[in-house]
Specification:
heterotetramer, A: Aldehyde Oxidoreductase, domain 3, 4-stranded mixed sheet, B: Ubiquitin-like (UB roll), 2 helices, 22% helix, MoaE_sf (chains A, C), Mopterin_biosynth_MoaE (chains A, C), molybdopterin synthase activity (chains A, C), EC 2.8.1.12 (chains A, C), Molybdopterin synthase catalytic subunit (chains A, C)
Chain lengths: 136, 80, 136, 80
């Protein structure tokens, strides 16, 4: 199980990390910076985290997935700092004997990360910055 | 007792952390801390949610606070 | 849209292929050779294909996914020949503005590929070879 | 009319393709072709499914066959 907060994500390495002799399938989700939000052009996203707690929560989430599904490998990796359009900001993945488990686990990892892990994202537009989800 | 601030909570308070020192009235529970913060910084009350972590774990309102705890104010998370 | 039949798959390249300024998420599935089937040790898998038709079917499947979901990029790539344990044999992926679409599309791509694309897999054990799914 | 064989169908017939030539009784439809093959090679009838492609597209039983068509016998697929 790999759980990390890093400055730069290389999505290409994750397949090797998920490889296992008993894994017939790996499912990976990569989140990246989109150019437009509600038709407004985004210059960059900036991520900050409460690192000790974020790593603890990510480990809990990975352990929950291991309890729910029969997984051989898991990766949860999030980037911090300023990220330009198309840059990867998060990679989660799981590998398992059959594909149902890795698809469901991968979805669980990203959904639960977004709900619980203390990481905050600020959208940087030309003339303003906005903390995402801060207001109702 | 040290309180860490992140994201928009840091911007509202204008600091990345603050301390309750010996002379201060130290909040005894998570709910007391939240109430105190919302009174001092009304904009914190306008957020979609406001959680508190004690020693890097989410804590519910009833959770008691001790002088040595690391407290963190957790505004709505938005990772991923 | 990338649709290919190749000798060797490099799963690391697929993320770059799915990257797009309007894609907030990419979902990728990699299928690989498992060491055991029903507790019997597999030495290798061997894949053969009816290439003209396989490429046509893969293109149809990619086009169907584009009709069902709002996707920015898609990849369907299958390997042929003999593959050892842990070697990748198939990679499918899609990228989209939001993650629902790419997860659902990715699942559709692999499920439908397995149902329709004329590719045949032979399991090579120590003392026998078996064409998969050939018999009821 | 050339008929391509793949996977286990190739192993059963023992060839990767065969031809119906001018002198042969050429099947006029997919169902006729399937019947002819199953009669000659009973093991083809024991497969979980047997499909036929005409010019690299799946064809139903009613599909007529012409001399110039590329025909393929498609045993149960198992890619991925």
């Amino acid at each position: 199980m790999i759980v990390e907060i890093v400055d730069v994500i290389d999505p290409g390495q994750v397949y090797t990390e998920l490889s296992h002799p008993n894994s017939g399938g790996s499912c990976v989700f990569v989140g990246a910076v989109r150019e437009f939000t509600n038709n407004e052009e985004v210059t960059a996203l900036e991520f900050e985290t409460y690192k000790t707690m974020a790593l603890k929560e990510m480990e809990k989430i990975a352990a929950e997935a291991t309890e729910k599904w029969k997984l051989n490998k898991e990766v949860i990796r999030h980037a911090v700092g300023k990220k330009a359009v198309e840059e990867p900001v998060v990679v989660v993945g799981a590998s398992s004997a059959h594909r149902d488990a890795c698809f469901e686990a991968c979805r669980y990892l990203i959904d639960t990360l977004k709900e619980r892990v203390p990481i905050w994202k600020k959208e940087i537009f030309k003339n303003k910055t906005v903390w995402i989800s801060a207001h109702p | 007792m040290e309180v860490l601030l992140f994201g928009i909570a840091k911007d509202i308070v204008g600091e990345s952390s603050f301390r309750f020192d010996e002379g201060d009235v130290v909040p005894k529970s998570v709910s007391e801390l939240k109430q105190k913060l919302k009174n001092t910084f009304p904009d914190l009350g306008k957020l979609s949610s406001l959680a508190v972590a004690v020693n890097s774990e989410y804590a519910n309102d009833e959770k008691g606070l001790s002088q040595g705890d690391e407290i963190a104010i957790i505004p709505p998370v938005s990772g991923g």
